[in-house]
């Protein structure tokens, strides 16, 4: 299943075909004595050494950066440690500062360091005045002892090869490919690959909280970041301060149900795109009804799988790449013109250069060199497969049954969702998975935000996660796209900031 992207990634699509810019994050020596070089640590009741560190901040562009240590394996908390990279944007009103607000962009595999600068450009002024905004790359991600799984050719072969899984032999080959890929990751990444699960990342967040001097965790998580936040609340309910979960992932649902409901979400969003496109008359490359337009998109995707399109360099754009190029534009309605332009190119010239660029944007891959710009793809796999419940090995019959169900839910994308074995063959599972949220009954109230037409994290997940959490309120954004805060409207900003800054929970049932 495709990885939910973050609000920052969706917004950045506006610059996709124009330019790319990554803020400098290298630590440098502060040139201003006003920049603090360290903060006092808080010792946890557990007495673990990792709670006794000193955080040494240094300037990195407009932010401050630091690296702390956390246990590689939280079941052996006094054993070897690994790096965790964090950054900070200081509160604009230090006299009325509440504390530190940890943020997470989702994925799993998204870089919290990358999110911070975007976040402070889009968040509400009251929130930025009251909190130091703290970004962090979760263990194994980005600059936090990043997982490695091979060069670009290895990654391309594993993620971009179009598979037709119609025989037991094809299924066994796909399973063995996962076994071999995981073995390569283990060889290059060491034991960390077995310990990048969400429970471990949540325990890391408690270390961050303590080292920043906060008695409670203030937190805003997007997409997969909602799973991370809910997991923290289950592990440390007494430490939860004000927590907002935007674009909820109900990670306690059955895996097949998650895939089917997400496929439905993308099908619905594609239909909404088609309706918008057809209303633009001569400017739309699709024709007929909404259902006919979606069928045309499916035909293009299947042609890419079976025959392929060329990009401007003469390289083949296959089915996986073309669907990635479609999916990435459905995270925000502001990106729909890119999908229209890509479809128009296929119709006019029979090439798929725009789809190729869009797919590489999704993959965080440089279109010119073919090199991956981050490790988000394989981090997504490593984290998600550790978290996922162990299921029975896939067979021709079980895959055929799943294909029938998901194709009914999503006629356009069902074949694509069924073209992978997911985590079948991944050799490890989380050592301390959170399988219940009952403990959150002892946590402070939590605000869940759901978007009615969210393709990646359907609104129904926001409803069910709200019900699972001990004391939670659901805030609804009636609109398109993935997540709401910072990309929807002022109503959402006011409601979220009202809770995080003033402690005023929105009235249950509030819709923006």
TrEMBL record:
Any one GO molecular function term: hydrolase activity
Stretches assigned to the Peptidase S33 tripeptidyl aminopeptidase-like C-terminal domain: 417-512
Record keyword Signal present: yes
Recorded superkingdom: Bacteria
PANTHER family: 2-SUCCINYL-6-HYDROXY-2,4-CYCLOHEXADIENE-1-CARBOXYLATE SYNTHASE, TRIPEPTIDYL AMINOPEPTIDASE
Stated family: Belongs to the peptidase S33 family.
Protein name: Alpha/beta hydrolase
Native source organism of the sequence: Demequina lignilytica
């Amino acid at each position: 299943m495709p990885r939910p992207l973050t609000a920052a990634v969706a917004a950045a699509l506006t610059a996709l075909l124009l330019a790319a810019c990554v803020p400098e994050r290298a630590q440098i020596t502060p040139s201003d004595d006003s920049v603090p070089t360290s903060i006092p640590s808080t010792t946890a009741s557990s007495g673990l050494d990792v709670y006794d560190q000193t955080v040494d901040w240094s300037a990195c562009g407009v932010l401050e950066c630091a690296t702390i240590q956390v246990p590689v394996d939280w079941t052996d908390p006094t054993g070897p440690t690994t790096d965790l990279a964090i950054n900070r944007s200081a509160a604009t009103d230090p006299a009325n500062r509440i504390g530190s607000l940890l943020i997470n962009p989702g994925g799993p595999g998204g870089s919290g360091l990358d999110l911070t600068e975007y976040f402070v450009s889009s968040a509400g002024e009251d929130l930025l005045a009251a909190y130091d905004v703290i970004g962090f790359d979760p263990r194994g991600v980005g600059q936090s002892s990043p997982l490695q799984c091979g060069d670009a050719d290895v990654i391309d072969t594993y993620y971009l090869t179009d598979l037709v899984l119609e025989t037991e032999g094809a299924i066994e080959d796909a399973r063995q490919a996962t076994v071999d890929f995981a073995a390569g990751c283990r060889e290059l990444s060491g034991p960390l690959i077995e310990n990048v699960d969400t429970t471990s990342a949540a325990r890391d967040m408690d270390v961050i909280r303590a080292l920043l001097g906060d008695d409670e965790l203030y937190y805003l998580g997007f997409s997969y970041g909602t799973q991370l936040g809910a997991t923290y609340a289950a592990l440390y309910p007494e430490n939860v301060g004000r927590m907002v979960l935007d674009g909820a992932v109900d990670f306690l649902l059955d895996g097949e149900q998650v895939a089917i409901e997400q496929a439905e979400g993308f099908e619905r969003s594609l239909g909404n795109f088609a309706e918008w496109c057809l209303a633009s008359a001569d400017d739309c490359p699709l024709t007929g009804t909404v259902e006919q337009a979606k069928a045309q998109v499916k035909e293009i995707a299947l042609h890419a799988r079976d025959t392929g399109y060329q990009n401007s360099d003469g390289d083949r754009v296959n089915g996986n790449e073309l669907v990635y190029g479609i999916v990435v534009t459905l995270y925000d309605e502001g990106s729909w013109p890119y999908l229209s332009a890509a479809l128009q190119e296929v119709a006019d010239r029979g090439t798929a250069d725009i789809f190729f660029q869009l797919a590489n944007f999704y993959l965080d891959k440089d279109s010119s060199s073919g090199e991956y710009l981050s490790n988000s793809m394989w981090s997504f796999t490593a984290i998600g497969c550790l978290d996922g419940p162990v299921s029975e090995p896939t067979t021709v019959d079980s895959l055929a049954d799943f294909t029938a169900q998901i194709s009914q839910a999503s006629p356009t994308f069902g074949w694509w969702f069924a073209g992978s074995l997911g985590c079948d063959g991944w050799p490890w599972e989380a050592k301390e998975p959170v399988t219940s949220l009952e403990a959150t009954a002892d946590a402070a109230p939590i605000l869940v935000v759901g978007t009615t037409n969210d393709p990646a994290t359907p609104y129904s997940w926001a409803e069910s996660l709200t019900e699972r959490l001990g004391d939670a309120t659901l805030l609804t954004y009636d609109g398109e796209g993935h997540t709401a805060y910072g990309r929807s409207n002022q109503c959402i900003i006011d409601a979220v900031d009202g809770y995080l800054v003033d402690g005023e929970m929105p009235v249950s049932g509030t819709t923006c």
